[in-house]
Specification:
MATE_fam, MATE family efflux transporter, mainly alpha, membrane
Length: 471
Amino acid sequence: MNRPSDTSGPGSSEPAPPAGPPEGRPHDPVVHTPAPTPDRQILVLAVPALGALVAEPLFVLVDSAMVGHLGTDSLAGLALASTVLVTVVGLCVFLAYATTAAVARRVGAGDLRAALQTGVDGMWLGLGLGIALAAATWAAAPWLVAVLGADGTVATQAVTYLRWSVPGLPGMLLVLAATGALRGLQDTRTPLVVAASGAVTNAVLNAVLIYGLGLGIAGSGLGTALAQLGMAAWLVVVVVRGARAAGARLNPAAGGIWANARAGLPLLVRTATLRLAILLTVWTATGLGPAALAGHQVVNAVWGLTAFALDALAIAAQALVGQALGARDVERARAVLRRTLQWGLGAGAVLGVLVGALAPLYVRVFSPDADVQHAAVLGLVVAAVALPMAGWVFVLDGVLIGAGDGPFLAWAGVVTLVAYVPAALAVHAWAPPGAVGIVWLWVAFAVVFMAARALTTGLRARGTAWMVLGA
């Protein structure tokens, strides 16, 4: 790989002038196909990615809405259990991000077989990690819930949900790896169809298992696990078919799996810092009382939905930047950066208006409790104000991940976590319980933490150190 200053390689020479027609023959008509504009390239990838990404937090939203009507303790238990599960899956998101960047670079360099081989190796890694993490999470469920500060009925509900849902972890990690491979191939439509189908299946299963069979919160966990396993089977079939057509091997290879793990390690560190910040936020919310914790779950679910929606632009940036750098096209990579940042700020502003203005209406879907609704509305207003900045942050993350700038993102994650910890601890020590405490908690998370992320990634993107060229 080379830095932008190195002009060697296929992209460095001037294209040869087209040869004229042989003497005595008329010129054939030339049809010029205009190159797609940056906006069109972004939208072609981002719109299907948006549907796929939004479908994932819909799992949490559906679970929250259905479990919320079982009672405040059940919803608070779901808040803790879903935090643990999202943390486990989130730590493995490098399966998608690193695979997207690596596959996109190889596609940009013209090596489709190697691109699909990377995707297959990523899926084997995801399957192994998923089985190991599912077993560990099931065994450690009571301890994990206790660490987050829960006890009594809330803790019981959280452990029940965790243990019924962890069989879906191998499926979820396979979904990450397979989706990363398809995104690197600039196929965001297949993950959209699979994710949308999974979200619908999850909703139906939850309704049947929670209410029809009377399983309560256990039915919610089981329904989600079954939906995730079905999604994984579908995506694996799609990637395997493509790999066979390209001549890539399907059996696990230690070298390829290790290469994927090594490439993902910096992103694992970066994700760990993000998850630690979220865990610290949930721990702080737990100390504000059950109603505040339930309200925080509503805010967090809506924030997750908007974050994934904005992350669609980051997905487009990952694929386009990865391919541009793989093809040694610095100018195109810069153009993608500029335009996706503009889209991120604009989309964040629009979502902020919707989230804040409509909050008093949609919080009723999650809980009939007036205290929970009040806390949720106030927290959502704070989150809404911060959404334009969040759009900026998510796009910059996508650009740097697509460039393979994992080591920097790991260090930046540590710095931003260090900046956030004092703010969260101050809320835990001095904020009053209930709705006012939730306001201060979301000021700390959505404003202080996100501002630290915006500053670190913004300064990095202004330079050229992240622009490594070649496959």
